[in-house]
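Milestone M4 deliverable, item 7.
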Amino acid sequence: MDVSIPVLAAGIAATSAPLIFAALGEALTEKGGVINLSLDGTILLSAMTGFAAASATGSVWPGFAAAAATGMAVALVLSVIGIWLGQSQVAVGFALTFLCRDLAYFLGTSYSRTPGPQQLAAPVPLLSKLPLVGPIFFNHSLIVYASFLLIPLLWYFMYHTRQGLILRSVGENPEGCWARGIRPRLTQTIYTLAGGALVGIGGAAFSLAIKPGWGRPQGCEGIGWIALALVIFGGWHPLRVALGAYIFGLLQISGILLQDIFPTLPSQIFQVAPFPLMIFTLVIIHFSRNRQDRWFSRLMALLSGSPPRALGRSHQQE
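Output delivered:
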């Protein structure tokens, strides 16, 4: 199968867009010291509500808004129980994952395999005609362009603004922030909701742009767990997390190409192949960090990072 590099790169960018929203939303949440394990269920429920709202209104924008609200609603439940009531964030996240998944398939039955609006490609005039870079960056749907912009914006917010400094400080030492007059639990709640909204938008990106429609299976099952892994892979840094998302997009595109090359093999093999390959990649990177090669150690340093010290720990204000 003859596929040009620009077309391949454009495919990677498009397929990675929902994962970028979900992974960066979780990175934003975890930077504040809160771990949200409900991503997989939230993505499914947001994909369903986004498609349902878009079908009811005939426009994708109410769909994206409904999906963001769904992600925030799930994050609010986590915030109330995990942050304000001090219960286990891990346990709450697991429970929400399965609850949201079952709700998505139960409530979305009437929308299964029905046509609905979808976001089409919106080529940027003149720029989309540029050789090489045109197809890669300027011939996508608006949600893909938004994923491009989200990466530098979140990086700038986290590391070059006062609010980003407060967020990171709360994730490292909420008690110290409380002593300085900052309200850690309120800060964590705000950014948990913001991260949930981004995860919800990622779910809608599947059902309204990347894999339009709703059904069972939807095609985004397991993406939430990959997003969680990418946050660790990227060392809780937006730029490295996005790099991991594009690596996963490459694996997905590779699976599609291999399916065309080996048509006699069951298609299910290529559909699930990116997931174990991504896990294998993460394992190789983890064990390779002990190598002494200078160039390799520098590369691993770029991919390394430590979690926020207060991650998953509820702050009890006195």
